[in-house]
Amino acid sequence: MNRKRLKIFEKVFGAVLFSSSTVTSLTVLFIIVFLFNEGIGLFNSTPVEKKYQFIVSNNNTVKELSSKQLKDIFNYDITNWKQLGGSNDSILLFTINDLSTYFTDDELGANFENLPSKINELIKKNPGILAYLSDKYVPQHLEGHVIPLTKISIKDFVTGTEWYPTSEPAPQFGVLPLILGTLWVSFGAILIALPLGLATAIFMAEVASQRLRNILKPVIELLAGIPSVVYGFFGLVVLVPLIQQLFNLPVGETALAGSIILGIMALPTIITVSEDALRTTPTSLKEASLALGATRWQTITRVTVPYARSGITAASILGIGRAVGETMAVLMVTGNAGVIPHTFLQPVRTIPATIAAELGESSYGGLHFKALFALGILLFLITLIINTSVELIKSRKRS
Amino acid sequence: MMSFIHKRIKQKIAFSIFGLISMIVVGILFVILGFIIFRGISVINWGFLTKMPEEGMTKGGIFPAIVGTLCLIAGSMIFAFPIGVLSAIYLNEYLKENWLKKFMRSMTNNLAGIPSIVFGLFGMALFVNKLKFGDSILAGSLTLGLLALPVIIRTTEEALKSVPDHLRIGSYALGATKLQTIRRVVLPIAAPNIITGLILSISRVSGETAPILFTVAAYFLPKLPHSMFDQAMALPYHLYVLTTSGTNMEASRPMAYGTAFVLIMIVLIANLLANVFRRYFGKKNKMN
User: Fold this and answer.
1) Which of A155, B10, B18, B112 has the fewest other C-beta atoms within 10 Å?
2) Which H or E run includes A52?
């Protein structure tokens, strides 16, 4: 009897174990599903809020307008339909705010009862009109037609150069500046962290005595343990003013500040992973090299480091991955200007920082909200590629 | 002879440079720690730790943020620690080397590589919106728990791997079942290292900001949470708010130093504790 109960208990325990590890492994898939669920709606949706319409004259031959073109029209960068492939009519922009410049209050009637007919009149009279109207002001027997807007495509999302997610009437969802900002800051970080990290790893694995190593190791671990918001705080109160003074800049919040802080944060990853890689070099190889009369230094540069090459590559990729996904520190020190960076002394905005800064102010389920989740998907995919390539490098090494 | 000396000198120079760089890395740590401890320690007093924030967060203390962080630590660990340890036991003790193990391992590795802000997005989409927990300690704890899972799994697995196989075989030979072996032989030996992992993940969870931005953190909430469905302040988010969006940033700077100091202390103490645990019990195990 006791034996039987034990057996059942054993089975139950096994099932519990199995289910908890299944939950864990499925979490990643869950995350993908939910990010896509919230973010994918951005694509193939119209870039303007549903209750507004753009109306043009019936003679207008332009088939559709993109979000970018709308923005240019509203900024008066495009002033003629010819520029959009239509007839030679200059664009007359009409929004509800312009009402009083065209009509007197008497003409509109006390309760705006004449508004639809007046708008119709206006549309009929001006072949170049582009009226931006709320649904409730659109006349029932419209003398013009509603011009369709180009739907947001994945290509526009990834290659668009402007990120103005809240601009009216046409928000711009181009993430290229954010992608480039992320890459600039991350590569800058790796440029700083790789030489420092590799040198420290070699020193710890090959040069330092066991006692020194026992001191260094916990220090590196501690460096990894400091919260990113503390790094950001330190960067903001120490590094940013320093950079501002040093380079005589209007603001110190720059890509450089981000790179330095991220470089420091990537150091522990790079040091630990490359040190482990260096330690896998077989002693026999090193001893053979020393026996041939090579110095320890020559052995390190010609034998140990080449042998650990793939591990060191993995370390730098992991370091980049750490930098790409880092949020708070970057948010606090890079200035968050959503423009394509040209130098390290400019403010930049990264993907994670954008999500962190904007999600709070976007309305749930709106286009902006969806766009931020789409950014999350992008970030997830980038880190997935990074992790997979690290695993590939490691498994190739093993075989 | 000449070239030999030449080589020796080259080696000396190279090693000195590498040693110097290592010292710089250590120096960076001490500069950051020193700066925050030096500036923060003068702010710390009993009132700072036990009072509510006052006058636009420029005076008073950070008590609600400390309580919030403690709630989040407890909540996330209640959820992540059992699941993490059980998963690790399953991975290490039950599964043979096959596709399932490979799959599960690569999934946990991927989970560890996901940026914390993505966890925040996921937590907001699932816990806050879909499951309708709202901005709450529960949603935040679950999100932070997910983030801590891979850390706990990895450290537990390492702890289990360090238990020599002959002990397991010996236990089986005495007629013990698998469960008995795990409970009486494997876990007691692995326990100190598992606890070390727990301490380190607590330190990680207490400092994370991005996952709690949209799942729990309150900008300013001068009262303590009553249930797990309440919003709460948290130390890392409080530090972020004080430095970037306070009403009077100059005046709240000392508060920020104090908060950073408390955060750093949590990390320092956790690391110290973990190291002590590892060394003390590591020696004891070796002696047995």
Assistant:
1) A155
2) strand A52-57
The domain A52-150: what is its CATH number? 3.40.190.10
Contact yes or no for B210 and A236 at CB 8 A: no
- Terminal C-alpha separation, chain A: 50
Instruction: Identify the closest residue of chain B to A332 by CA–CA distance.
Output: B244
Domain boundaries, given as residue ranges, for chain B: 46-287
Residue type, A79: T
Burial (CB < 10 A; 0-12, 13-18, 19+), residue B228, is: middle
The domain spans of chain A are 2-42, 52-150, 176-398
DSSP conformation class of B245: T
**CATH classification code of A176-398:** 1.10.3720.10
What's phi and psi for B54, nearest 5 deg?
-130, 160
To the nearest whole Å, the CA of B47 is away from the closest chain A CA by 22
d(CA A148, CA B285): 74
Fold type of domain B46-287:
MetI-like fold (1.10.3720)
User: Cβ contact (<8 Å) for B207 and A220?
Assistant: no
Strand partners, A243: none
Predicted model pTM: 0.89
Cα–Cα distance between A183 and A204 in angstroms, integer? 30
From chain A, pick out residues whose CB is under 8 angstroms from the CB of B252. Answer: none
Rounded to the nearest 10 degrees, the angle between the axes of helix B137-161 and helix B116-123 is 130
pLDDT in tens, chain B (288 residues): 557 788 888 888 989 999 999 999 999 999 999 999 999 998 888 888 888 887 777 777 889 999 999 999 999 999 999 999 999 999 998 888 888 888 888 888 888 889 999 999 999 989 998 898 888 999 999 999 999 999 999 999 999 998 999 999 999 999 888 888 999 999 999 998 899 899 999 999 999 999 999 898 877 777 788 888 888 889 999 999 888 876 677 778 888 999 999 999 998 999 888 888 877 776 665 544
To test the contact with chain B by mutation, choose from A196, A230, A273, A398 the residue with the greatest count of B C-beta atoms within 10 A, namely A230
The ipTM is 0.91
Beta-carbon separation of A325 and B116 below 8 A:
yes
Please answer yes or no on whether B115 and A297 come within 8 Å at the CB atom.
no
- DSSP notation for A80-138: BGGGGTS-S-B-EEEEGGGHHHH--HHHH-TTSTTHHHHHHHHHHH-TTEEEEEEGGGS
Cβ-Cβ contacts under 8 Å, B3 against chain A: none
**CB pair distance less than 8 Å for A229 and B207:** yes
How many CB pairs below 8 A link A and B?
246
